[in-house]
Amino acid sequence: MTLHDEYRALYQSYLEYCNAHDFDSMASFYAPGITVNGSPMDPGAVTAQFEPLISAFPDWHWDVAHLVTDDENIVVHFSVTGTHRGAFAGIEATGRRVDVSEFTLYHLEDGKFAAVWDLLDMDSLIRQIS
């Protein structure tokens, strides 16, 4: 198995936990000194960011459109879907289905995500529930 195959397998395992909304298991993939969009965080704080999103969109689901690896990084382009069932960004539940793009770069160190840069098309999400 090549390094790229290992990274793909690692990411697939992580994605399964993400889509199951299993925050504890997700946190196990994060290095203790992880940074997210340049800000240092502990693994629990990283997963806590997902809680309001999952509360508002309980069926939130990431589907990989593209996944690229190199010797230290995994880059993913997602299609993300969910149904607006709870308040989000000050907008009460609408029951509307959303479909947005997300791009994330994961930098790996010792088999863990040490740095993450993430860009979700939040403008599109807000337009779809407004």
From TrEMBL:
One of the Pfam families matching this protein, by short name: SnoaL
Signal peptide positions on this chain: none
GO biological process terms on file: polyketide metabolic process
Gene3D superfamilies found in the cross-reference section: 3.10.450.50
Domain of life, per lineage: Bacteria
Descriptive protein name: Ester cyclase
